């Protein structure tokens, strides 16, 4: 994705122009081979890079925001955020208390940005809503069969799934997680939760004492060049006694909070993966509702962490969900997770299922893989972190929905006790609730993540995949994670790439348009849409560095070199409107030069049950 020590002829031309620009102490701008009289255009205009108070175009613009008050504001309408909202209102109704709970969600509809496999473990759901079956929860496919295998280029080697191993899915359900999240939203609204889809939380607000005051939604009516349009409107402020941040993996606001409150001071850096997924309608004769298939091995080498899933869903038509996960600690800069996914589908054991079928959806997102070692401090004055924002995914299980939901419930219970305590004397304006972290460490989430803590880092050995599998068999299946040591991760994923000169280029086959596909046609199936004139959800700190690092293909055709209108050179173009919000460029960029930020509300993918 990001070559460390190479760049194309086009990039070299851009770099030459940029060096000249830097030598003249001009602010970093996109390169051009036009005459010096031409104005060099900025490729990023976000106010975090170009502050508005230093931009004369913003002089005289009304910047006051309307503010509203709630008891609890929740950022993110996913499993964690909605579970927290539901639990808060359940407790309020049970104790006959008035409690205003607001959920802001950047997607246009609840569930529209949700993407997961997904094989759901219903533990937390049964605790939250015991009568979920009677209420019509869309868990339509109980797992009936588990298959696990190691793939070589042409063959499939079956591996038995023994009772107690993480990949044993007895009692779980195959779901379309977006539909499940939408159902959770309906349950929340019935209880009186206020849901605000289409409103992206873009800024954390603070009291004078430094505690969190709430959030502000994003401004609208900003041109692509960063100037205010005639229809410009400030976002809205939502203040709360406590704010819960459940933005999902690598959240924009959580990144700020980690620094503001040093929440990662006593844990390892988070490590991530990229998950790519498709939905297919297949030949009914090949359809086995309830079957789960997982694999490791080909097309990845033994030292690149990753694997695949193929789930047969019972949704009224012969539907399968299939996907490929690649750890973002990969070292070869020539590796493309998207192309590895497309290549994997041509394995005989996978292609036989897909032949004659029709691909109907595509999407991608980052996943937290740091597990127990990477859990940050969860509480701070005025707020708490829940769900995939801090990262509670059980990596060997490839499941995080149940832990995300439970974390939201624990946060809700802790917050409710503090908010309704009539004798409470808070030292800060925003409530500090350390009881949440205490409850978390006593919960089954903590025990579950602790027991599997060494499985992911055990792959960092000479034998890679196979060494990790042996370790899992001995120390997890036999000892259940009770070994008296805790293995470490390798550090930031952004630091793992080797120089391209030390790596072997990967020649990927061209997509055939039947089983494998190109990026543009895939992004089209995600329903991704941003207002093109204002799409600016990628803030680049240093354009010069970006030219040195970027490859012309990314996961969603966001970064590319295009010819200059004059035909005498190339320029770097960021197609932010193609961003599916996977956030992988932000995570993997070797110089940490890219900052993913929320676009205008409702922008991004429009997943239907992904």
TrEMBL record:
It holds the Pfam family Fer4_ETF_QO. One of its GO terms (molecular function) is electron-transferring-flavoprotein dehydrogenase activity. The keyword Cell division does not apply. SUPFAM superfamilies: 4Fe-4S ferredoxins, FAD-linked reductases, C-terminal domain, FAD/NAD(P)-binding domain. Its cofactor is [4Fe-4S] cluster; FAD. This is Electron transfer flavoprotein-ubiquinone oxidoreductase. Accepts electrons from ETF and reduces ubiquinone. The keyword Iron applies. Residues 570-599 form the 4Fe-4S ferredoxin-type domain. GO terms for cellular component: mitochondrial inner membrane. Binds 1 [4Fe-4S] cluster. It comes from the Eukaryota. It is an enzyme of class 1 (oxidoreductase). Keywords: Electron transport, FAD, Flavoprotein, Iron, Iron-sulfur, Membrane, Metal-binding, Oxidoreductase, Transmembrane, Transmembrane helix, Transport, Ubiquinone. Its EC number is 1.5.5.1. The chain crosses the membrane at residues 459-479. It catalyses: a ubiquinone + reduced [electron-transfer flavoprotein] = a ubiquinol + oxidized [electron-transfer flavoprotein] + H(+).
């Amino acid at each position: 994705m990001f070559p460390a020590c190479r760049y194309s002829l086009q990039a070299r031309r851009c770099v030459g122009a940029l060096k000249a620009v830097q030598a003249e102490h001009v602010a970093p701008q996109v390169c051009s081979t036009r005459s010096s009289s031409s104005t060099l255009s900025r490729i990023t205009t976000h106010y975090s890079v170009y502050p508005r108070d230093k931009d004369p175009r913003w002089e005289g613009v009304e910047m006051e925001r309307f503010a509203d008050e709630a008891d609890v504001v929740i950022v993110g309408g996913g499993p964690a955020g909605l579970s927290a909202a539901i639990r808060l209102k359940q407790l309020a109704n049970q104790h006959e208390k008035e409690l205003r709970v607001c959920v802001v969600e950047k997607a246009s509809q609840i569930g529209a940005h949700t993407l997961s496999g997904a094989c759901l473990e219903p533990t937390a759901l049964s605790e939250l809503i015991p009568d979920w079956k009677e209420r019509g929860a869309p868990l339509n496919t109980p797992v009936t069969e588990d298959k696990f295998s190691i793939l070589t280029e042409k063959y499939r080697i079956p591996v038995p799934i023994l009772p107690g191993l993480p990949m044993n899915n007895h009692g779980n359900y195959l779901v379309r997680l977006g539909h499940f999240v939408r159902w959770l939203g309906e349950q929340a609204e019935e209880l009186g939760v206020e849901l605000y889809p289409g409103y992206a939380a873009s800024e954390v607000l603070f009291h004078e004492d430094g505690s969190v005051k709430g959030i502000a939604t994003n401004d609208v009516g900003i041109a692509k060049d960063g100037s205010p349009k005639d229809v410009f409107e400030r976002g809205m402020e939502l203040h709360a006694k406590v704010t819960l941040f459940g933005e999902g993996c690598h959240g924009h606001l959580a990144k700020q909070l980690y620094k503001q409150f040093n929440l990662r001071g006593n844990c390892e850096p988070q490590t991530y993966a990229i998950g790519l997924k498709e939905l297919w309608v297949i030949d009914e004769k090949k359809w086995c509702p309830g079957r789960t298939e997982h694999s490791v091995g080909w097309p990845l080498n033994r030292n690149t962490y990753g694997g695949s899933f193929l789930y047969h869903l019972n949704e009224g038509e012969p539907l399968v969900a299939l996907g490929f996960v690649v750890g973002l600690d990969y070292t070869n800069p020539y590796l493309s997770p998207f192309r590895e996914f497309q290549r994997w589908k041509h394995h005989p054991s996978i292609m036989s299922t897909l032949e004659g079928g029709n691909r109907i959806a595509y999407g991608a997102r980052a996943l937290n893989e740091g597990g127990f070692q990477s859990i940050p401090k969860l509480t701070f004055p005025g707020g708490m972190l829940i769900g995939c924002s801090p990262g509670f995914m059980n990596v060997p299980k490839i499941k995080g929905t149940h832990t995300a939901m439970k974390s939201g419930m624990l946060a809700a219970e802790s917050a409710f006790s503090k908010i309704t305590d009539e004798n409470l004397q808070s030292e800060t304006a925003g409530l500090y609730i350390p009881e949440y972290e205490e409850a978390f460490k006593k919960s089954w989430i903590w025990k579950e993540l602790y027991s599997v803590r060494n499985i992911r880092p055990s792959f960092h050995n000479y034998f890679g995949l196979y060494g990790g599998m042996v370790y899992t068999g001995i120390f997890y299946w036999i000892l259940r994670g009770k070994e008296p040591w805790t293995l470490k991760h390798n550090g930031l994923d952004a630091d793992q790439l080797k120089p391209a000169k030390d790596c072997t280029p990967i020649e990927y086959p061209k997509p055939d348009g039947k089983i494998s596909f190109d990026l543009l046609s895939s992004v089209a199936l995600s329903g991704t849409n941003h207002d093109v004139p204002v799409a600016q959800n990628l803030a680049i700190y240093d354009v010069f560095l970006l030219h040195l690092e970027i490859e012309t293909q990314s996961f969603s055709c966001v970064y590319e070199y295009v010819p200059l209108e004059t035909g005498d050179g190339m320029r770097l173009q960021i197609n932010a409107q193609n961003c599916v919000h996977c956030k992988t460029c932000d995570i993997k960029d070797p110089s940490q030069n890219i900052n993913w930020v929320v676009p205008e509300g409702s922008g991004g993918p429009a997943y239907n049950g992904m």
